[in-house]
Amino acid sequence: MTRVWKWNRPVTVREVLEDLQQERSIAYTTVMTVMDNLYQKGWVRREAEGRAYRYAAVSTRAAYAAALMNEAWQRSDNQAAALVAFFGMMSPEQRDALGDAMRVIQLPAEGPREVPVPPEGAEGAEEAAEAGEAQGPREPAQDSEAPSAPAAEAELPESEGGAPGAGGGR
């Protein structure tokens, strides 16, 4: 999944294989099996191109990570304590990112309502958040074909090194 997310475009098994082979020896059939498993689990979609398939991610890495965090938080028997513990583990950079995110979404105390959509381009996002420019409600960042939230305990191939959001995958 890391390769598919990194390239942000449909990829073939051959492309993934060639990229992985720069780091280690791996068989074409192994990569093909992993890509098919990801398709079967709903993590990627595929389109036939000649005798091969092109695979594309169903959701973004950020959406997947957010779904995992939300699922873990929902399972907590004390959600406030879980948040306090989570925030306590954050680095200063992560706390800064959290502050930026809170300014962008501008959540009122009673819960989410309208979420401002930052203007196109990364440069305008912060200015829009600071100016409070709402451009209408924002839908969750999820593809309509995306699985709602892949289960945290979903098995991934060992060659992927764990959950795609964990950063250890290939």
Q: What general form does the structure show?
A: elongated
Mean pLDDT over the residues = 73
Straight-line N-to-C gap: 7 Å
Compute the number of strand runs: 3
- Biggest sheet, strands in spatial order? 1-3-2
Indicate the structural class. mainly alpha
Describe the largest sheet: 3 strands, antiparallel
Radius of gyration: 19 Å
SSE order in H/E notation?
HEHHEEHHHH
Secondary structure tally, helices: 7
Helical content band: 40-55%
Fraction of residues in β-strands: 5-15%
Low-confidence segments, ≥5 residues, pLDDT <50?
118-170
Outline of the structure:
With 170 residues, the chain is mainly α. Helices cover 45% and strands 8% of the residues.
Topology diagram in text:
Blueprint: H1 2-7, E1 11-12, H2 13-20, H3 28-40, E2 44-49, E3 52-57, H4 61-75, H5 79-89, H6 92-105, H7 122-131
Antiparallel strand pairs: 1-3, 2-3
Q: What features would you describe in this structure?
A:
This protein has 170 residues and is mainly alpha-helical. The chain has seven helices and three strands. It has helices at 2-7, 13-20, 28-40, 61-75, 79-89, 92-105, 122-131, and strands at 11-12, 44-49, 52-57. The chain has a three-stranded antiparallel sheet. The radius of gyration is 19 Å and the shape is elongated.
Name some characteristics of this structure.
170 residues; elongated; disordered C terminus
